[in-house]
Design a protein that fits this description.
Layout (H helix, E strand, L loop, with lengths): L3 H11 L7 E10 L2 E6 L2 E4 L4 E6 L7 E2 L19 E4 L4 E6 L9 E6 L15 H15 L6
Parallel strand pairs: 1-4, 3-8
Antiparallel strand pairs: 1-2, 4-6, 5-7, 7-8
Keywords: Copper, Electron transport, Metal-binding, Periplasm, Signal, Transport
Organism: Roseomonas mucosa
GO molecular function: copper ion binding; electron transfer activity
Length: 148
């Protein structure tokens, strides 16, 4: 009996269960998709997973877009030049922006859960470059073999 508790403890340490994952997104001045970008700009998560937004270049942040938050999701806003880690629990699609570069189209999508990409709608009242970037992201997400 005195070996049972330590054995259970160590078995718990090495058990393979479902664990939340932390994904990394870089905030960049440019990459192969353009200027002022998140890399990657589309991430699929399970509820409870997190994203660590890393300021790989200066003068970027990550903030939720109010009109692109699922029901029950909490808004968030990081500080410029600082790393922020956000846990996504509410299923649905989240629009993310860099506040200083939103008008330049620095946005990304986070899909939490099993919602089909075809169900994602881009609001009409976004800055034109942000709206266009969202449409490009969705097109790549719908056709992953074409580079999404």
């Amino acid at each position: 009996m005195r070996f049972v508790l330590p054995l259970l403890f160590f078995a718990g340490l090495f058990a393979t269960g479902a664990h939340a994952e932390v994904h990394e997104v870089k905030m960049l001045n440019r990459n192969s998709t353009g200027n002022m970008v998140y890399e990657p700009d589309f991430v699929r998560l399970k509820p409870g997973d997190s994203i660590r937004f890393r300021a790989a270049n200066v003068s970027h942040d990550a903030a939720s877009i109010p009109e692109m938050l699922p029901a029950g999701a909490e808004a968030f806003k990081g500080k410029i030049n600082e790393e922020i880690e956000v846990t996504f629990t509410a299923p649905g699609t989240y629009g993310i922006k860099c506040i200083p570069h939103y008008g330049m189209g620095m946005v990304m999508l986070v899909q939490v859960g099993d919602e089909p990409v075809d169900a994602i709608a881009v609001p009409e009242r976004l800055p034109p470059l942000a709206k266009r970037r969202f449409q490009e992201i969705l097109q790549r997400a719908k056709n992953p073999e074409a580079g999404g």
